[in-house]
Amino acid sequence: MFIILLFSTMPFIGVMVTNYLFPVYLADVLETSGSMYGIQSMIYAIGAVTAGMIVPFIAAKWGVGKTIIYCMVIYTAAISVILFANIPLYLALMFFIAIGNSGTRVARNTFMMDQIPNEIIGRVDGLFRSIGLLLRIVLLAIFTGMVSVGLIIYCFAILSTLLVVSSLLVILFWKKGIKSAGIQTDQYVTVA
């Protein structure tokens, strides 16, 4: 469960890191104006709201585990393809990045609330937030140095690799660890 909860935070960490990378990518690689960043943010917001509305229904139908995995795969695929995107495709990918990140967070938080006892959930969540913050600091330090020498493409390649590995680990440990531990993963998710 620790591995699943740890690596399923990677889409959120990816979003935090790409908040630094996307403006540079838009200006230096795609050579667009600043207004494109505003359009990107608007499309991301539409995707996040869409995920907030549909993910509880998907989780109720397929189960929380499959929802986490599918949303992580959507996010990973969108980030991996972004290197080869022109401006219209880049904007379309923002929608899927938002669905992948937001969907993973909703399903992951639902899983945590269902499976972790109330008396320790604060400490568990604090642990994962601390690890996430450390990962963000390390990645931003590395990427800041790389961007300053014009290696933004490699930043996305590293991020994509980390996300692929994270997705594979979540899939592997979900099927292996959670099922053998006897944790019920296909519980109904309440739609608020």
Helices, by number, come to 7
First-residue to last-residue Cα separation: 25 Å
Second rung of CATH, namely the architecture: Up-down Bundle
Number of domains: 1
- What overall form do the CA principal axes indicate? globular
CATH superfamily: MFS general substrate transporter like domains
**Cα radius of gyration in angstroms:** 17 Å
**SSE sequence, one letter per element:** HHHHHHH
Global mean pLDDT = 86
Helical residues, percent: over 70%
Query: Which class of secondary structure composition applies to the elements?
Result: mainly alpha
Quaternary structure of the protein: single chain
CATH topology-level fold name: Growth Hormone, Chain: A
Protein name: Major facilitator superfamily (MFS) profile domain-containing protein
GO cellular component, one term: plasma membrane
Domain Major facilitator superfamily (MFS) profile: 1-178
Organism: Jeotgalibacillus malaysiensis
Describe the structure in your own words:
The protein has a single domain (2-178), classed as Up-down Bundle (Growth Hormone, Chain: A), CATH 1.20.1250.20. By secondary structure, the protein is mainly alpha-helical. Helix 3 crosses helix 5 (87-115). The chain is 84% helix and 0% strand.
